[in-house]
Amino acid sequence: MYRDGTRIIVSPSAPLRRGDRVIVKTRSGEMMLRELKRKTAKTLELKSLNPEGPDSMLAAEEDVLWVARIVWASQ
Predict the structure, then answer these.
(1) Which residues pair with 24 in a beta bridge?
(2) What residue ranges in the chain does DSSP mark as E strands?
(3) What is the mean pLDDT of residues 62-72?
(4) What is the Cα gyration radius of the chain?
(5) What is the rounded distance in angstroms from the CA atom of residue 38 to the CA atom of residue 31?
């Protein structure tokens, strides 16, 4: 989806909606670019942008440090 050198702009304050592309930073330090499948008070379900990659389910309070919506990308 994104190539080396692609610049992205994120908005931590933008509301998250199903289908948004997001960046997630986990408490373990991992950064992930994913599509938001579903967000509840307890979980964050993420779809891999790589068709061969696995989807993810994270515990919102335990696993996620922050999440921000991608609002622009240079392609």
Answers:
(1) 32, 67
(2) 8-11, 21-26, 31-39, 43-48, 56-59, 64-73
(3) 96
(4) 12
(5) 18
